[in-house]
């Protein structure tokens, strides 16, 4: 299988995040991508390459140009303001803040602008964040091109991840929505509908929001129930799309401690929807934070199930653009991704 990766991810080194009042070391580290790359390099069946630069246009197809411009300038503005450490907001634009007073516009100070373009405090902007995020989008786009060129599957080793980034918001360790950028690219190149299957532990609020009113992009997600799991405010089963996109969003929230049988059952339901939706290409947001030892999640999947998962997804009969999202248990991160991809390769036949 073809694998796209970029060493530029290493410029993005988030240091700390606040969890329920405590400052803790950030879990979305460069070592994550290094572990995955090492596991894939160890196996002769993966063919590695670096991405082709695609410019900003395919990113502007799913994101507010204001968000992209902000991410590009944010670090310099933070430094110019004489701030210490990473760029993090202290106040975010909760809709209730200006309720009944109009939407408000982008403020001018850097700390306020951070609170305008993000929804939380766990996603710091540092010196290399923008370059890494752009490289990750190029990684996803290059994998999509490989599949458009006839490959049955390609894996995009994206870092930072993307599925929490909405049209006009970064957050959830995500800055640009790599999977959404790739899916929109496929739609525009083929004129076909595209399914996005999100298997990260967390609900992909950003991908869902970007395509919520789109009849030509199916978003299906299997994830920790937002009743307890981040991002808390999206991913309920009654969210099914709106307007022309009514019925093209499917959420399958799962209970804490979810094991292999319950997970595979939900996956089969998700794949039924993928099968009945048109198109020849599916984008998979692959997070292995569903693993039982993941330090920030609460599912109980075995290592072995990743192979079966990959096999079942490939058997749905779509060409696959597999985009890396989360997964934070460093000792098994690479091998779980490898298992998934080997299972997929076997399922593609
Ligand atoms: N105390 C991805 O997996 N932190 N993002 C939750 C709970 C945010 C995860 C903290 C998790 C974001 C791509
Ligand atoms: Zn996740």
Provide key terms for this protein.
binds N-{4-[(3-aminopropyl)amino]butyl}acetamide, two-stranded antiparallel sheet, 10 strands, alpha/beta, 349 residues, globular, binds zinc ion, eight-stranded parallel β-sheet
Account of the 3D structure:
- The chain has 349 residues and is of the alpha/beta class.
- The chain is built from ten helices and ten strands.
- Helix 7 links the parallel strand 6 and strand 7 (217-224).
- Helix 1 packs across helix 10 (330-348), helix 3 packs antiparallel against helix 4 and helix 8 (260-276) runs parallel beside helix 9.
- The longest helix is centred in the middle third of the chain and has 20 residues, at 129-148.
- It is globular.
- The chain starts with a strand and ends with a helix.
- The structure holds N-{4-[(3-aminopropyl)amino]butyl}acetamide and zinc ion.
- Zinc ion (ZN) is lined by residues 200-202, 287, 289, 325-326.
The oligomerization state is single chain
The neighbouring-strand order within the major sheet is: 4-1-5-10-9-6-7-8
Written as H for each helix and E for each strand, in order along the chain, the element string is: EEEHEHHHHEHEHEEHEHEH
Mean pLDDT figure: 98
Distance between the termini: 12 Å
Question: What's the number of extended β-strand segments?
Answer: 10
Uncertain runs: none
Q: How many helical elements?
A: 10
How would you characterize the largest beta sheet? Answer: 8 strands, parallel
What coarse outline follows from CA principal-axis ratios?
A: globular
- The secondary-structure class comes to alpha/beta
Spell out which ligands are present: N-{4-[(3-aminopropyl)amino]butyl}acetamide, zinc ion
- Helix percent reads 25-40%
Radius of gyration: 19 Å
Strand proportion: 5-15%
